Amino acid sequence: MGSYSSLGDVSGKRVLVRSDLNVPLDGTTITDDGRIRASVPTIRELAEAGARVVVTAHLGRPKGAPEDRYSLRPVAARLGELLGQDVAFATDTVGESAQATVAGLADGQVAVLENVRFNPGETSKDDAERAEFADQLAALADAFVSDGFGVVHRKQASVYDVAQRLPHAMGQLVSTEIGVLRRLTEEPERPYVVVLGGSKVSDKLGVIDNLLGKADKLLIGGGMVFTFLKAQGHEVGKSLLEDDQLDVCRAYLERAQQTGVEILLPTDIVVDTAFPSGDREPEPRVVPAGEIPADALGLDIGPESGTAFAAALADARTVFWNGPMGVFEVDAFAAGTRAVAEALTKVDGLSVVGGGDSAAAVRTLGFDEAAFGHISTGGGASLEYLEGKTLPGIQVLED
User: How does pLDDT run across 318-345, given as a tens digit for each residue?
Assistant: First the structure.
């Protein structure tokens, strides 16, 4: 058995597995099944060991009540295809359907419960309400395996409270993710380069703050770069800007200079006069980073910057990348993200794609996932770990 061998012989036992099956849907069509595929190894190993596997997960952000658009039914069907066996589906979380579905499982069979967030107890801030729901979930199982890394930073019933009620262990996915993150934070091999993108500086404050003391280089792109450029005195036109973070960015730039950490910002930017939409053709042009016109907004790092970022990654032994360099979903603004991804495939050492939009970009742009050292399934959880925060869903497993 994998990292859950502490549970002993699971044959004939009902094992509740908290997976992360929060995949993008177009109606009922799954547009990226990466998280489902990442969940398969733990589920398959438990089933092959004779467990009666009960999978619980969420999809989207329903408000504690059923919504058809957030049903896990299409996810259960895809999981069955990947496992090569029929997967039973319960139409509720802990009610009559869930109880009957679990009771009907034979050794080695798998069931998926309906979206756990359809029950208000899952995400409740009220400990008693969350505990009541956790009691109902725990009643469906004999043991618990936490394998949804994308939610371990949440103190939620199916992540935290259930683990207090059942014999518990980490699944393969969570165990692997934590192992990789420890390599990033505990004596990483050097040079250690961190690439940060995405839309907002405020989303990455804790990571920048913590990694300024650990990384050798920090490469910054995406929408967040314009707050840094503005902090340096440059005009950024209509680009995304967080005025309330300008002083913070200036402080980071000064601190990096004092501590010898190199912060690399783009020297050129791909701009357009409007954000890409379906009713107009993009009109991209490249301008110097310090000369963004008043009527334009930055939508990608420029080709010169893409080359510079790739060069900065060339001798790295450890790389963590979180956040695209631009609006990668549109070809006209995807080159910067593609350049970073391409450079990561050539890293002689550990290259980590930090989940979320970065993982989506790798798949959207057609890269072979095997070319990267590790593609995380949990953007928010990865970031909070790298900030130095305690993750409730991990802490409860280790207590």
Answer: 999 999 999 999 999 999 999 999 999 9
Choose among 45, 17, 37: nearest CA to 147.
17
Binding residue numbers: 20-22, 35, 58-61, 117, 154, 204, 298, 329, 355-358
In the three-class reduction of DSSP (H, G, I as helix; E, B as strand; rest coil), residue 380 is classed as helix
Binding residues for substrate are 20-22, 35, 58-61, 117, 154
Integer Cα distance of 211 and 315 in angstroms? 19
Instruction: Report the catalytic residues.
Output: 35, 200, 356, 380
Helix or strand run (H / E) with residue 285: strand 285-288
- pLDDT band per the 50, 70, 90 thresholds, residue 41: very high
Strands 268-272 and 285-288: antiparallel
Is pTM, for the whole model, over 0.85? yes
Question: How is the chain split among helix, strand and coil, in percent rounded to 5?
Answer: 40, 15, 40
Residues 230-239: tens digit of each pLDDT: 999 999 999 9
- The alpha carbon of 317 is separated from its chain's Cα centroid by a whole number of angstroms, namely 22
